[in-house]
Specification:
By secondary structure, this protein is mainly β. It is about 5% helix and about 50% strand. The strands form 2 sheets. Strands 9, 10, 11, 12, 13, 14, 15, 16, 17, 18, 19, 20, 21 and 22 form a 14-stranded antiparallel β-sheet that branches. A hairpin with a 2-residue loop joins strand 17 and strand 18. The longest helix has 13 residues. The N terminus is likely disordered.
Length: about 325
């Protein structure tokens, strides 16, 4: 665990913001200006009122002005207010101001610090003598969505044909489990076969980047996390995976994957079903001997394939130019939860 420290500049900024920033409910003078407000963070039945979490929360990433809470207070008497949380997992929220009016009012509570661990962090929000708890995901849970090019909602499943054989097929399903690997959280896709169950790990960042955690070589130094899709790329834009060293055919080699956005906005039929808003990605394998310079990478043209993704549907096909018997196409309408 990394030690958390507050630098002098951060402390000065904190004091400045506490005393100089204008709040939505601030007021400099007036009746009761020296007193504290009264009220609750709960409703008349004692239930917590809505607290909205704003911003992105990532390990070792300092908060900005976009990290804050919107807290609804039930003000019963006007005056100064202060809303704060605990400082668990290296970050906290605190702000103050003046409540000029009584009744339900929403205040903005600024965040400070940075998450230390990729976990779901429970924060206790306090106002006056009342408190409520909220959970903030700092990277411990994968992004479960079904409206992009690679749905990861639990229970979603896809069935595929391999080659032209109607008997050679498989089904993959998003598990209700997830995996924390390093500081990243992955959705787990399971594919049962007669003799074993295959498990795949995928994640996405909500900004159009989709990643897989996998070994590029069976005898490599280990699996890596790399982007297999960037849905915002323009046609002919390229990107690559990191390089991995391993043994292939008895030789020590370095391998990397290269990707090219081949087409966007396609409408394509597979097995009697027409899929719209399809992205086509060219995938290439590059190899070189470890002893060779980085300029010696050679594209393995016989391993080039084209993979297709449909928005709101996911992976619908992979076509291998040299080995058409290995082509994979979606068998039936996928079930997206």
């Amino acid at each position: 665990m990394k030690q958390f420290a507050i630098t002098l500049s951060t402390f000065i900024l904190f004091i400045f913001c506490m005393n100089a920033c204008k709040k939505e409910m601030s007021y400099e003078t007036g009746n009761g200006a020296n007193g504290n407000s009264g009220g609750t963070i709960t409703d008349s039945l004692g239930n917590c009122q809505k607290i909205i979490v704003k911003g992105t929360y990532k390990v070792d990433t300092l908060f900005t002005d976009s990290n804050y809470l919107l807290v609804q207070l039930n003000i019963t008497s006007r005056g100064h207010y202060k809303v704060s949380t605990d400082s668990s997992n290296g970050f906290w929220f605190i702000d103050s101001g003046y409540a000029l009016n009584t009744g339900l009012q929403t205040v903005k509570i600024r965040g400070y610090g940075k998450p230390l661990l990729p976990i779901v962090t429970t924060k206790t929000v306090s106002y006056d003598s009342t408190f409520c708890q909220i959970n903030i995901d700092c990277g411990a849970l994968p992004i479960f969505t079904n409206d992009d090019y690679f749905p990861t909602t639990i229970g979603s499943n896809w069935s595929y044909f391999v080659g032209t054989s109607l008997t050679n097929n498989f089904t993959t399903t998003v598990s209700n489990l997830y995996a924390i690997i390093g500081t990243n959280a992955y959705s787990i896709f399971t594919t049962p076969y007669p003799s074993y169950n295959d498990t795949s790990f995928y994640r996405k960042d909500g900004n159009g980047n989709y990643y897989q955690f996998i070994s590029l070589l069976d005898t490599s130094s280990g699996p890596i996390d790399f982007p297999f899709l960037k849905d915002y790329k323009n046609v002919n834009d390229t990107w690559e995976s990191d390089t991995v060293q391993g043994i292939l055919g008895g030789q020590y080699v370095t391998i990397k994957y290269g990707f090219t956005m081949a087409a966007k906005g396609l409408t394509i039929p597979f097995n009697g079903i027409t899929y719209k808003n399809v992205i086509k990605v060219q995938e290439d394998v590059y190899l070189k001997l470890i002893s060779q310079p980085s300029t010696a990478f050679v594209r393995q043209t016989d391993l080039t394939d084209y993979t297709y993704y449909s928005k709101g549907v996911g992976w619908i096909a992979s076509q291998y130019i040299t080995y058409p018997a290995e082509n994979i196409t979606v068998k039936s309408q996928p079930v997206i939860k």
